[in-house]
Amino acid sequence: MDKALIRAAKASHVSVIRDGFYKRWYLTVSNYTYRKRVFLSPVSTGFTSYVFAEAESSDGGEYKQGNYILILADCRRRIELEFFLGTARHRRQSLAKIDLLLKVLNSFRSALGREAQLITEYEGAEKTAAESKTKSSK
Fold it and tell me: Which of 5, 32, 101, 124 is most exposed, with minimal Cβ within 10 Å?
């Protein structure tokens, strides 16, 4: 690969990687606007579920072919959602997709919270009933 091209690539947000075995060069964009992986369970559980989100820099809007990915994974399965921003239509669709996903997740969170509260209340009522039955039998 041309040394001037390598210097130019290194000066921008592009990395140059050489695969020594095959003697090939790769140009990879390594500048991200957002990149985060979060494990969803405490380490003590041993569960490996996680969320990974990556938004590659558009370099001020100039680079349209970036990676915009959201990965949801549990112990055995992995879902990868892509959000392409290369055209105006795809940008609208990608923003609508993430908005809908957030709406569903927020609604699911509300339903989950309500059900958790109902289960807690039921368990409390069962415990109270069992305690009063034990006291009355003595």
Answer: 124
For 107-127, the pLDDT digits (tens) are 999 999 999 999 999 999 888
One-letter amino acid of 124: G
Residues 66 and 24 in one domain: no
According to the model, what pLDDT value does residue 127 have?
82
Which residues constitute the domain of residue 17? 1-30
Q: What is the DSSP letter of 65?
A: -
Take residue 13 and report the two structure tokens written for it. 């947000």
Same domain assignment for residues 38 and 66: yes
Gyration radius of the chain over CA positions: 25
**Is pLDDT at 29 greater than 60 in this prediction?**
no
Tens-digit pLDDT profile for residues 36-82: 999 999 989 989 999 999 999 999 999 999 999 999 999 889 999 99
Same-domain pairing of 55 and 19: no
Residues 121, 80, single domain; the answer is: no
Q: How far is 57 from 44, CA to CA, in rounded Å?
A: 35
- Nearby residues of 72 by Cβ (< 8 Å), 6 or more positions away: 51, 78, 79, 81
